[in-house]
Automatic annotation (TrEMBL):
Gene3D superfamilies tied to this protein: Tetratricopeptide repeat domain (1.25.40.10)
UniProt keyword list: Repeat, TPR repeat
SMART domains per UniProt: TPR
Protein's name in the database: 7004_t:CDS:1
Organism encoding this protein: Cetraspora pellucida
Signal peptide: none
Repeat positions for TPR: 55-88, 89-122, 123-156
Length: 207
């Protein structure tokens, strides 16, 4: 966090000199996203898009809207990106994740399958599809995707989280704990940590 604070100070200084510097605004928006200051990220991205409405930045704004629970606005941005670039990797992944949250599982799978046709080993695509299968209670399919994702990156926090939740649903508590513990070591999502403590309690573990 200290490094991010220092980077933020540097970017603030740069933007005092040139308030419309797109690269600095983008970097600051990314730091705000990483530190969950989504409203601040949105301000910077809106400013960028006013200056330079590139699909890359519109997609990033759509993702921030998703984090804020502003799903209609998120969907509009991601749809706009995919109209211009139907194979956009980021927009397909984020719209797939958004459809999953909205319980539109077939739409989610359409997006993620389209992505995985082009990039079969895309770790976010595999993890997102695994999560959609989990929500559909297709646990074998979920594990197949999540195992493949974790073979590519054994420390991928989101893949560990989702596979841990699959194992928990299957009452394989031993494997669930291994994945969830590993995920929690690098997880900055406080709400997720509280949710995991409740799950641990339900499994008879008092931490």
């Amino acid at each position: 966090l200290d490094e991010l604070d220092k980077a933020l100070e540097d970017l603030n200084r740069a933007l005092q000199i040139d308030p419309n510097h797109i690269h600095s605004l983008h970097k600051r928006a990314e730091i705000y996203r990483m530190t969950k200051k989504y409203e601040d990220a949105l301000v910077d991205l809106n400013k960028i898009i006013d200056i330079y409405p590139d699909p890359c930045y519109i997609g990033l704004r759509g993702n921030i809207y998703r984090f804020l629970g502003r799903y209609e606005e998120a969907l509009k941005d991601l749809n706009d990106v995919l109209k211009l670039d139907p194979k956009n990797r980021f927009a397909l992944t984020m719209r797939g994740r958004l459809y999953g949250v909205l319980d539109k599982y077939e739409d989610a799978l359409d997006d993620i399958n389209e992505l995985l046709k082009v990039i079969p080993d895309d770790i976010w695509g595999l993890t997102t599809r695994g999560d959609v299968y989990r929500r559909q209670w297709k646990m074998d399919d979920a594990l197949k995707d999540l195992n493949k994702a974790l073979k590519i990156d054994p420390n991928h926090t989101f893949a560990l989280r989702i596979r841990g939740m699959v194992y928990y649903s299957l009452k394989n508590h031993k494997k669930a704990i291994i994945d969830l513990d590993k995920s929690l070591r690098t997880e900055n999502d406080y709400e997720f940590k509280i949710k995991m403590l409740k799950i641990y309690h339900q499994m008879g573990l008092y931490l």
